[in-house]
Amino acid sequence: MTCLPTTAGSKKLGLVIDLDICVGCHACAVNCKEWNTSGHSAPLTDWNAYSDDAEEDGDEGAWGVWFNRIHTYEAGEGEDARTVHFPRSCLHCETPDCVTVCPTGASYKRAEDGIVLVNADLCIGCKLCSWACPYGAREYDKTEGVMKKCTLCVDKIYNENLEEQDRVPACVSTCPAGARHFGDLGDPDSDVSQLVAERQGYELMPEMGYKPVNRYLPPRPRRTKAEDFGAPERLADLAQRVPAGETTSDASGLLGWLDTMLSR
Amino acid sequence: MSINPFETVVETVDTSPPVSDETKFTTCYMCACRCGIKVHLRDGTIRYIEGNKNHPVNKGVLCAKGSAGIMQHYSPARLTKPMKRVGERGSGEFKEIEWDEALATAAEWLGDIRKSDPRKLAFFTGRDQSQSLTGWWASQFGTPNHAAHGGFCSVNMAAAGLYSIGGSFWEFGEPDWEHTKFFMMFGVAEDHDSNPIKMGLGHIKTRGAKFVSVNPVKTGYSAIADEWVGIRPGTDGLFILALVHELLRAGKVDLQYLVRYTNAPWLVIQDSGAADHGLFARDDEGRPLAFDKSSGKVVSALEADITPDLSGEHVLPDGRKAVPSFKLLAERYLDPSYAPDAVAAQTGLDAATIKRLAAEIAHAAFEQEITLDVPWTDWAGRRHEKMIGRPVAMHAMRGISAHSNGFHTCRALHVLQMLLGSIDCPGGFRYKPPFPRPAPPPLKPVGRAEQIKPGTPMAGPPLGFPMGPDDLLVDDAGNPARIDKAFSWDAPMAVHGMMHMVIHNAWAQDPYPIDTLFMYMANMSWNSTMNSKGTMEKLTDKDPETGEYRIPKIIYSDAYASEMVAYADLILPDTTYLERWDCISLLDRPICDADGAADSIRQPVVAPDRDVRPFQEVLIDLGVRLGLPGLTHEDGSAKYPGGYPDYIANHERAPGIGPLAGWRGADGTEGGKGAPNPDQLKRYVENECFWRHEFKPEERYYKHANKTYLETATKLGFIGAPNQIIMQLYVEPLQQFRLAAEGHGANQPPEKDRERIKRYFDPLPIWYQPFEESQVDTGSFPMHAITQRPAAMYHSWGGQNAWLRQLHGKNPLFMNRKQGEKLGIADGDWVYVTSHHGQIKVPVKLMEGVNPDTAWTWNAIGKRRGAWNLGKDAPEATKGFLLNHVISELLPARKDGYRYANADPVTGQAAWYDLRVRIEKAADDRPEAVSEPQFPVLKTAPTAERPKGPLQYKGRRGQ
């Protein structure tokens, strides 16, 4: 087993993901793949990439290692069912079992910022960590024989070869909808902590006790009634400008009202 | 020190590794969005592609497609060398040849045609971003038979917009993301402007504006809407006109706006039976007339300081009667047949919902008015202290355009926006320059037989904007002059051409036989055609008498081994988008935004490692070989010896106007117009490959009537003169066509078309049942079937991409769960989908968020076995499918046997979404079932090699 850092600081780097505006476009997942396939845990191996392997159970197409996957599903029934786009990656838990179950010390949590990483040199590919993680965040690279996972772009967020504003995880800088935020969730004054407070951001499955650092912002209530938008239910209530009668049921009524002087 | 085996061994993480040894900016081409990208290179290999933070389109973000550019660039489907066909057409048997031979062959074929009858070249380009070059080249060659893919894509939106407001939706306009309070989106899936729309939606939702999505399917954008309006396909027009009805009834229209900015007060001649009935009354100088209430006289409607009437009946100087166009409009839509209660059932919506949405729209527009403290000057020189905004914005795309009633539906949407006064005001729909242009732009199509001369360029472009029957490209008998029948009585306002009809017509030799079909980047034997199987047959059909192919020669250029490659006789392999120069020109489809004019370039980021050439380079080379005057000096030498980049920098379309607007003038100090600058491309590269001219705050709204803007636009070369651009509620050219159908004028439609023209050329928007629905037995074909594009895939291109195909490697037919249960269909079942044209067998996925009468699937995931250098059992081919197989390119035969194109009768827009089907559970639902139809495995043309074993890309040399 592997110990969690005993000297952990207060810094808890993580992501805040806004489920109200995520359109499920996969931009974050692909940009993550693109950065990380040449990054700290490179490569993010793909198999049957062009369907030229003889797959035993029929060709199901390409598959590979991804640190971030988007799931789209519907909750509820009928027209009111909510379509949810749910991006899923490592939550960089404060007390993750994926680290403590590791028999070699390969899986570890950084003391300085809380990022959970895998040291490929020590990993024996036993997959205990993937069994321990309830979020399904770990990805086994069968070719390399090691476990891989989201690094929070540890080789990007501190990278002095990049401009300062680019030092955020790839999934955050690329997100077209602006649904992903990065920062120190250990600092109550940070932008991300404030956003979580303001929008009642929540942690996934807190009952498991792993204290995930990442937060999800819930969808805002949908506004499908006129009053939700501050509008009257009936146009007639808005039609104060019609001088004669509440509405004009035929053309003569409206055209009569058109008698006002309008200058070009 | 002893080692404690339970203590964590700390890894030394290099948190600051070198990312790249070089970065280059260029423009993405993973879809039509044209985002700026920054490409990181390591050892000359692509390490990482990110969005360019400074770029006006994407401001640093990048979608899934753009981020997968590495895999597109290194795709094993890349063609490697020119080829000529050696087996039967369609067999995929090719011989690799040298470029000299390829170009000489093409030049010989084309040269023969040009010397005899240039019309025998049909040159059609697909997802071409260089249409200002390709269209001009066709014109230089002398053939009218040119268009890009607009006819099967967006022409309803373009035509309806340009004839109505001098601008359009799609990527040519945008909602005022900063100020709108009520945003309504019609039929928009992931498409053009995909990153700007995602950025905008995130922004307006965060600001608290209401977002309504009108779409039969609730995925993607619709999933995050405040309100999803799951309308029945093809009925949006009814819904929109019901909103118009409600607003008119309540008097909630912006009359001041209508009087100032639209033709609402223009007098329409009321003289039933006369040759000018329904046209605008005009004075001797051709100016439209209005009735001025102040003076009590009929005066020029273009005068600034008049008080026009909108409602009366007036007597013209010649004694005839005329009424303002607004009166006709109001009378029409106040009719109870447009009331929500009357249309609700057909649209599949509740009348109460329509009424409430009308109230919310009116509330946003009139009670939530926006005022910007920005003084501005109108076209007549009058200063206004503030900019008043009606913060209701609309956006619409393919769900509106891909129906046979799409032109009028899109017109209805523009009429709704005009009535609200929300076009180009704060909070409304905004033009992107170079729009607005006069509605429509003053450009006529060229291509009638008498305008074609062997060995001679045409006098103008093959595409333009007809103003009436005299501008059609037909002969004296009314027969089409173009191979696609665009600008004929079949589709008089086919302003983007009708690429979807080219193969059928060329095969049918109707209206005449052609010799060479030359195509670029268009997968016309597969996902970019209706009736894919029939199209393959037409491409390979031979004349039994001569044994020759009915389409004698086919030249095709593509970067990849698409399904179309096997059907060509000569292949000109293109580069990837990272290996080339390109210009994203203001003469074509620029990257402007509402606050600025912009254009951009692509530069080669890496050199090709195959014997391939950029298509535009090849086109210019061919032009020199053919001696096209625009590309050669009198002695036959090349005008642009430096090829495409030379052309980009030095070609002038009109004095001072070239492909790029930035850094013009010999010293590079002029923008818009100016002499060519030999260093222009260098300046673009220095500026991250784009140029942008930002408008001053006082120029940013009311562009159609804003003196300062109009003067700037004139200076930049967007419009000819700084005149007010008056929006057309009532579109007079439509009435011109209708009058011809009623028996007036020298150019009248053939009898077969007369009733059709009368009916569909209404100067005010109408709604009618989509053609397929009205012509087939809806009892036998009770469901609609449509497609939409996934966010992570662009047409068939994405399927070759090792990363993107993991996201969408197959496509089920999605159906409403309750509807499925009613039909005894469960998740994962296989079903037969049958239309009047054909049948397919496909897997099903049930879902909640879809209109009950609608089934849908992702567009262009399905592949033909063997294409794109994918393994023959790839799920794209076995579990994926195309809906195209059940869509006919022709409507069912009329009584007289004639079959019109499956298209909008006004614009010729392909009516993909008119499809009606029957869905039945297939008995055979074994796990090994494959989608049907299947076709013989395509023999793979020579391509780059598939990597052996696992793909382990690390962004370094040797990968």
Notes on the structure:
- The complex is a heterodimer of chains A (264) and B (959).
- Chain A starts with 12 loop residues before the first strand and ends in a 7-residue tail after the last helix.
- In chain A, strand 6 and strand 7 form a beta hairpin.
- Chain A is elongated and about 85 Å long.
- Chain A folds into 2 domains: 205 residues, Alpha-Beta Plaits (2-Layer Sandwich); 29 residues, no CATH class.
- The relative contact order of chain A is 0.19.
- Chain A is an alpha+beta fold and 264 residues long.
- With 959 residues, chain B is of the alpha/beta class.
- Among the domains of chain B are: 194 residues, Rossmann fold, CATH 3.40.50.740; 281 residues, Dimethylsulfoxide Reductase, domain 2 (3-Layer(aba) Sandwich), CATH 3.40.228; 147 residues, Barwin-like endoglucanases, CATH 2.40.40.20.
- Helix content of chain B is 24%, strand content 16%.
- Chain B is built from 26 helices and 34 strands.
- The longest helix of chain B has 18 residues.
- Chain B starts with 21 loop residues before the first strand and ends in a 38-residue tail after the last strand.
- At the A-B interface, helix 1, strand 2, strand 3, strand 5 and helix 4 of A face strand 3, helix 1, helix 6, helix 7 and helix 8 of B.
